[in-house]
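TASK: fixed-backbone design
INPUT:
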């Protein structure tokens, strides 16, 4: 066992939170306690990467890319059939009202930012329902761009949003009522790639002592869908390391029958949009939905970012206000709702 000490790196929920941190006279210390397996000898960090962050990621986490043997990643068909046979058919959700194919899209965007649902995705979803996952619950996983209440947290309170031309989205809001106001244990400001796998980052007021944030969130919500957006605090990591960490996150949820909705990022601290390319490739590889928020952000002033290039530009979910619709946060919440709506309707459409 070892102690590693360094500075707390925080992706705050807003510039105001950053200002509060900056006003402190001394940096906030972060003490990491971890067990290093004998075979897990740390290697030198890549050029330009913080040794503290790099070693912390290596030592606190050794997420296995191998899912539990009892629930193979591919195919799910045999497992799903066995579970359904012994537990009965999963409850079928009410069929959503059909939405015209020409439903409004902000800023004249092409449909390519919205996800599609494959046969494989339906299989994962149905498998989860057979396991007892809640068809009316979704979860969130990520950092400040996914944390409550900024990301989708306002839609359980009708006075906190205005749909305007997007009134058709009220149906999906009603269906997932309760999920929006839920403070996800797997989405927090300051989370980095390592946070999801260790109990050190779990809230002790909600989570069992041995649970990591993902295990805690799954137990509390038993969701059927989860938005996954990670990597803002890991921009210095090589693509391979980012992929090594996000794969076990995706597989954790798939093996529990929770359908991931991966999404691309508007922030691009190190340039090259590297992590977005990984997200798109893994969405195709695992055959799960992709909400391409990067496409949306490119149509916004300053690509939807504030000057710090970390936080989205602030805006309220008033979708009838053209000024708000130029902000990163308003568009993130609107297009996330649209993505949720598309996935929900496709999963529960007649004949699916």
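OUTPUT:
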């Amino acid at each position: 066992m070892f102690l590693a000490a360094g500075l707390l790196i925080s992706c705050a929920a807003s510039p105001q939170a950053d200002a509060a941190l900056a006003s402190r006279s001394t940096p906030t210390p972060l003490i990491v306690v971890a067990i290093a397996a004998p075979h897990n000898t740390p290697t030198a960090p890549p050029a330009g990467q913080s040794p503290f962050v790099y070693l912390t990621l290596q030592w606190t986490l050794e997420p296995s890319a191998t899912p539990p043997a009892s629930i193979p990643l591919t195919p799910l068909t045999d497992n799903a059939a066995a579970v359904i046979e012994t537990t009965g058919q999963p409850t079928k959700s009410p069929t959503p009202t059909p939405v015209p194919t020409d439903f409004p899209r902000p800023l004249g965007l092409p449909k390519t930012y919205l996800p599609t649902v494959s046969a494989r995705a339906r299989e994962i979803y149905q498998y989860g329902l057979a396991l007892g996952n809640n068809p009316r619950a979704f979860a969130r996983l990520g950092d400040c761009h996914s944390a409550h209440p900024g990301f989708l947290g306002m839609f359980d309170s009708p006075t906190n949003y205005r749909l305007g031309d997007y009134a058709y989205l009220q149906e999906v809001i009603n269906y997932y009522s309760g999920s929006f106001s839920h403070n996800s244990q797997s989405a927090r400001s300051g989370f980095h790639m390592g946070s999801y796998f260790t109990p050190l980052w779990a809230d002790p007021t909600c989570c069992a002592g041995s649970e990591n944030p993902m295990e805690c969130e799954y137990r509390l919500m038993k969701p059927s869908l989860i938005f996954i957006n990670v990597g803002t605090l890991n921009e210095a990591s090589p693509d391979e390391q980012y992929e090594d960490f996000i794969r076990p996150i995706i597989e954790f949820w798939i093996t529990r029958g929770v359908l991931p909705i991966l999404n691309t990022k508007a922030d691009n601290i190190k340039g090259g949009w590297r992590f977005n390319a990984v997200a798109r490739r893994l969405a195709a590889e695992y055959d799960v939905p992709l909400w391409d928020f990067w496409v949306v952000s490119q149509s916004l002033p300053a690509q939807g970012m504030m000057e710090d290039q970390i936080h989205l530009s602030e805006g309220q979910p008033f979708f009838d206000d053209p000024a708000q619709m130029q902000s990163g946060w308003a568009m993130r919440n609107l297009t996330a709702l649209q993505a949720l709506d598309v996935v929900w309707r496709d999963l529960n459409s007649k004949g699916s």
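COMMENT: Residues 1-45, 49-71, 80-89 have pLDDT under 50 and may be disordered.
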